């Protein structure tokens, strides 16, 4: 049980980190034009986190953690897929206007804030200050 708690804690801390990173990325993208190197690096990090979410979703299911722990991995997987599809459509249809960019920035900011709040909730409720059972 202790190993499940430790791995769940590290996952939620990672989700919190990526929520903060997403918020910082949104602000950088909104207020300046990031370099191609920065965009590639951030994209690579988020791709790795997407893959990690697939692993953790199966890990949480296999180890029978409470279903509330499934929310973040499912959320990240769906969000990554949906935003990737929308991004591909926007690029191929050549509709990259300032309002579309603003829409992406607002969406990214709101989703990052949700990630931060929900990660803090999970940490506080189950992982840092409580010895409550995280399994079903």
Can you tag this structure with a few keywords?
about 140 residues, mainly alpha, 4 helices
Describe the structure.
- Helices cover 80% and strands 0% of the residues.
- The N and C termini lie close together (11 Å).
- The longest helix is centred in the first third of the chain and has 30 residues, at 2-31.
- The protein has 136 residues and is mainly α.
- The protein contains four helices and no strands.
Radius of gyration: 16 Å
Taking pLDDT < 50 over at least 5 consecutive residues as the criterion, the unreliable ranges are none
Distance between the termini: 11 Å
> In what range is the share of β-strand residues?
under 5%
Q: Give the helix level as a range of percent.
A: over 70%
Mean pLDDT: 89
Q: What is the number of helices?
A: 4
Strands, count: 0
Based on Cα principal axes, name the global outline: elongated
Q: What does the main sheet amount to?
A: none
Secondary-structure-derived class: mainly alpha
| Strand and helix order | HHHH
